[in-house]
Design goal:
Two copies of one chain form a homodimer. Chain A has six helices and five strands. The two termini of chain A are 27 Å apart. In chain A, helix 1 packs antiparallel against helix 2, helix 2 crosses helix 4 and helix 3 crosses helix 4. In chain A, strand 3 and strand 4 form a beta hairpin. Chain A is globular and about 50 Å long. With 171 residues, the first copy, chain A, is α+β, with helices and mostly antiparallel strands. Chains A and B meet through strand 3, strand 4, helix 5 and strand 5 of A and strand 3, strand 4, helix 5 and strand 5 of B. Chain A binds a DNA duplex (30 and 30 nucleotides) through helix 4.
Chain lengths: 171, 171
DNA sequence: GTCATGTATGTAATATCATAACATGTCAAG
DNA sequence: CTTGACATGTTATGATATTACATACATGAC
């Protein structure tokens, strides 16, 4: 369960965290928190939405909307793109998932509920994506915004480079 | 020539800078620097590529690849997508233009040659895009990367919010 | 309960963005 | 004047995303 399972072999993304860890455990824990948050906020975590989040968590990497759709369709949900996009958009709005623009993909948020300005580190060799909190990045961005009178509502920060494993192999 | 001309009326982007300024002047200056840089580095700023950069500068906002293509085709260049994408990719590689992922669009770099980690501020009301240097953001990102052993090669930082003009009107 | 209302889902059709593959043209070194 | 490298043109297709509309389900008013 731990380690580099499935890294970058099939789709848009690789594993979500670089370090080895208990995958089933972290997915279950995140799912539980997502449910608690939805209940608290009144957001309706319906079957499609819940299943979409589970799919992202189980894949444990960034998935394209059409990849998610395949899973959903195979399980009896609709098989047209809006089904996946709507569920994914909902999750992103609720802070339960993130959109990785560089990959045209989506990944489950690993720290739902915690106030965080996530930064994504994307390995150009294996497509693995790691999410890291980066309050300092948000502060720096807002400082720059203040200088030109811009009010920031959301930020996207994505860094492309090499993850530890690929850096070792490639260099 | 100065002011909010054409802001967000036709395409993917609005004006590139929020503040009023002499548009023809800044475009000309940037173009001159782009030529000098290309000459110095040996990069071949061919007619299509040069014209593509001019189109971005003249539009003074973020343009989609197909918008650029329309201009190019109207001037006798090829009218198929690869023509635009290749020219735009070249400009991005040379640091003469930037890709704005949130808008699926491209904008001329306003500070070519200067080492900079640009941050883009995108107004959600008028789609205007401003490019600002943000060395502090880059440093903060690399500090976070160091914590997980990731080596950063390129970063994308895009902030969505309201530009000064829209904030005034809307609020 | 049942009706009205808002929200969620399903489906069809299409719009938009991007690339692969290959042919042709240009230019400078040898 | 040929060769090799790079640039451009063109065809075709792939990948991503949205609009529009129909149907179903939940919730609260009565």
């Amino acid at each position: 369960m731990a380690g580099a399972e499935g890294r970058g072999t099939t789709g848009a993304g690789g594993v979500v965290a670089f370090a080895a860890h208990d995958h089933a455990h972290c997915a279950g824990e995140v799912m539980a928190r997502a449910e608690a948050l939805s209940a608290a906020s009144g957001a309706r975590l319906t079957p499609v939405r819940r299943r979409t989040l589970e799919i992202l968590l189980q894949a444990h990497r960034a998935l394209g909307a059409y990849e998610v759709l395949e899973h959903l369709a195979a399980e009896g949900f609709g098989n047209q793109p809006p089904v996946a996009y709507r569920a994914l958009d909902f999750l992103v709005e609720q802070g339960l998932a993130h959109r990785i623009r560089r990959l045209n993909a989506f990944a489950a948020c690993m720290h739902p509920g915690e106030a965080h300005s996530p930064v994504f580190f994307i390995c150009r060799a294996c497509n693995a994506v790691a999410e890291a909190p980066a309050e300092a990045v948000r502060r720096a961005t807002e400082a720059a915004a203040a200088g030109i009178g811009f009010s920031v509502e959301r930020t996207t920060v994505e860094a492309l480079g090499l993850c530890p494993a690929c850096a070792e192999v490639g260099a």
